[in-house]
Amino acid sequence: MSRHDIVFIGTAILDSVIKGFDPEPVSAAGFTAESGSINAGGEAVNGSIAAVKLGMKSAILCFLGKDQAGDLIAGELARRGVDTGLIVRPEGHPTPVTTIFVAPDGNRRSITNSAHRYNFHPEQYADVFTDTEALVIGSLFRAPFNDPAVIKAVITAARDKGVLVFADTKLPNFVRLSLDDIADSLPLIDYITPNEDEARYYTGEEDPEKMADVFLSKGVRNVVIKLGARGCFFKNSERSIMMPAHSINTVDATGAGDNFMAGLVSELLRGSSVEDALRFANGCGAICATAVGTGTALRDRDQVLQMINKQV
User: Fold this and answer.
1) φ/ψ of residue 297, rounded to 5
2) b (16+ CB within 10 A) / e for 253-291
3) Splitting the chain (312 residues) into consecutive groups of 10 residues, what average pLDDT does each group show?
4) Crossing angle (nearest 10°) for helices 274-288 and 301-311
5) 3-class secondary structure for the chain?
6) How many whole angstroms separate alpha carbon 159 and alpha carbon 221?
7) Domain boundaries 4-12+43-94+113-311, corresponding CATH code
């Protein structure tokens, strides 16, 4: 039996979330906003916490600085029940901090800085990220997964041990890669889950099915295009599924995709069909978006099932 159900590898950051920012200054040096909050964030943090809530044994392999921001994130992960024993905390590298501006419709824009370019090499820890049923790469195309050699080493190590590989994507920031740059790694990915903007960027297509076809042509086994308020589109070599979104009042979409991923992986590990797993994942993402903060609204698996049952 594996030590973990799911290991998440990716960024762990401190989010400063500003909701309802008014760009008109109220003074020479001042602006106003509806609210401001500090949250542990980053796709690996968000996903690992959500997976625990859904009943999974979850661990995170990430980098944190030896600073107050790192202490806050590590403490929150431990409090939520995530295995923090895999976290790497070297000297001399600060924990990344991001400022996120949330618009009234729940969409957001973020500001990153040089700390997000940290020199973290997860491929050096293959013995810990292969002792699991599933591996989630939370930020394909961003550090540490903006280096083709790192991507190939991590995915190959996982697949050699029979671990299911899930990869979420991000738009590039400091290093720009194309699908062709990681062509030898794509056939080793079991599920890839870009959102619509990311899929458009990497494929050059506008239609979700055509986007999926590009990823499939590169060897990815299963493709999920996240479409926000329209739901998600799934395709593999055998079938395609358009899964409508759940009807909600969106407050803050930050982390919705990470909660979606946790729901998708956890249900597939439970033996659910792809269709049921997609419906459940949509529910996780929807619930996340009903409150400010990535880990605020989602409570447990029963909550998601109740939401699904009400809307069927």
Assistant:
1) -85, -40
2) bbbbbbbbbbbbbbbbbeeeebeebbbbbbbbbbbbbbe
3) 92 88 85 88 94 98 94 96 94 87 77 74 94 96 94 98 97 92 98 98 98 98 96 97 89 86 98 98 93 83 93 68
4) 100
5) CCCEEEEEECCCEEEEEEECCEEEEEECCEEECCEEEEEEECHHHHHHHHHHHCCCCEEEECECCCCHHHHHHHHHHHHHCCECCCCECCCCCCCCEEEEEECCCCCEEEECCHHHHCCCCHHHHHHHHCCEEEEEEEEECCCCCCCHHHHHHHHHHHHHCCCEEEEEECCCCCCCCCHHHHCCCHHHCCEECCEHHHHHHHHCCCCHHHHHHHHHHCCCCEEEEECHHHCEEEEECCCEEEECCCCCCCCCCCCHHHHHHHHHHHHHHCCCCHHHHHHHHHHHHHHHCCCCCCCCCCCCHHHHHHHHHHHC
6) 13
7) 3.40.1190.20
Q: How many CA atoms lie within 13 A of 144 on its CB side?
A: 26
Report the predicted TM-score, pTM, of the whole model to 2 decimal places. Answer: 0.91
pLDDT at 106: 67
CB-based burial label for 100 (10 Å; 0-12, 13-18, 19+): buried
Instruction: State the pLDDT at residue 312.
Output: 63
**Residue 153: what residue type?**
A
**Spans of all domains in the chain:** 4-12+43-94+113-311
Ramachandran assignment for 42, one of left (phi > 0), alpha (psi -120 to 50 degrees), beta (any other): left
Q: Are 256 and 107 in contact (CB under 8 A)?
A: no
For the record, the structure tokens of 135 come out as 């591996």
CB 268, CB 305: distance < 8 Å: no
Closest CA to 236 of 274, 203, 179: 274
Q: Is 282 in contact with 290 (CB distance < 8 Å)?
A: no
- Two tokens, residue 246: 């759940």
Task: Pull the structure tokens for residue 148.
Answer: 């083709």
User: CA–CA separation, 168 vs 43, rounded Å?
Assistant: 9
